[in-house]
């Protein structure tokens, strides 16, 4: 089982990236593998850019999608929605071959406010379904008041949160395998 980690925040000390780091530990512990997307390397999507040869960064990114059995997305909440970086990455993934079609996806997120990315995740799920991806319905991971969840080393403080992420990663593996039984758990 091979995963692709996508962090919707470009911030160097992103709390959402820390959630994905925790998910990565689970993935590796299961004997699975994981690759990371660099959304900051992608140009802003334009139909003009895709009219000729795709930029190299986009080609690399789309190849990462093709190799992945499942996607792990951590989204911040920006103005009650997903970040522009994440939306831009989705545009690229769906052009010149829709790399999201049929893909198993798990979404997690943490934000500074009380809603814990609930509004961003609602938007993201709507987009994912539209592009033919299969968002994992449960467990939901929406953590409010982001910085309260991490210690100074950037590790999750609460064992229950860590366990929730573990459950989600394992459920995503099962979900991906159910959608595409060729994958080996
Ligand atoms: C442009 C912008 C808009 C934001 N809008 C929201 C919001 O609508 N709801 C919320 O809870 N937090 C909002 N925040 C705060 C983010 O949730 C917070 O900065 C969070 O830590 C970002 O995720 P990151 O740590 O992964 O970068 C916003 C932050 C930025 C920079």
* Bound ligands, named by name, code or SMILES: flavin mononucleotide
- Count of individual helical segments: 6
**What is the CATH first-level class name?**
Alpha Beta
The end-to-end distance, rounded to whole angstroms, is: 6 Å
CATH topology-level name: Rossmann fold
Number of structurally distinct domains: 1
Order of helices and strands: EHEHHEHEHEEH
- Low-pLDDT runs of 5+ residues are none
User: Quick one: CATH superfamily?
Assistant: Flavodoxin domain
Report the sheet-strand fraction.
Answer: 5-15%
> Mean of the pLDDT scores?
96
Estimate the helix proportion, in percent. 40-55%
The helix-and-strand class reads alpha/beta
> Count of DSSP E strands?
6
* Rg (C-alpha, Å): 16 Å
Task: Please summarize the sheet with the most strands.
Answer: 6 strands, parallel
Short description:
The chain is α/β, with parallel strands linked by helices and 185 residues long. The protein contains 6 helices and 6 strands; from the N terminus they run βαβααβαβαββα. Strand 4 (104-110), helix 5 and strand 5 (134-135) form a beta-alpha-beta unit.
List the helices and strands and how they pair.
Blueprint: E1 2-7, H1 15-29, E2 33-36, H2 47-51, H3 56-67, E3 70-74, H4 84-93, E4 104-110, H5 118-130, E5 134-135, E6 141-143, H6 159-179
Parallel strand pairs: 1-2, 1-3, 3-4, 4-5, 4-6
Helix pairs in contact: 1-6
Bound molecules: flavin mononucleotide.
State the main characteristics.
6 strands; 185 residues; 6 helices; Rossmann fold; six-stranded parallel β-sheet
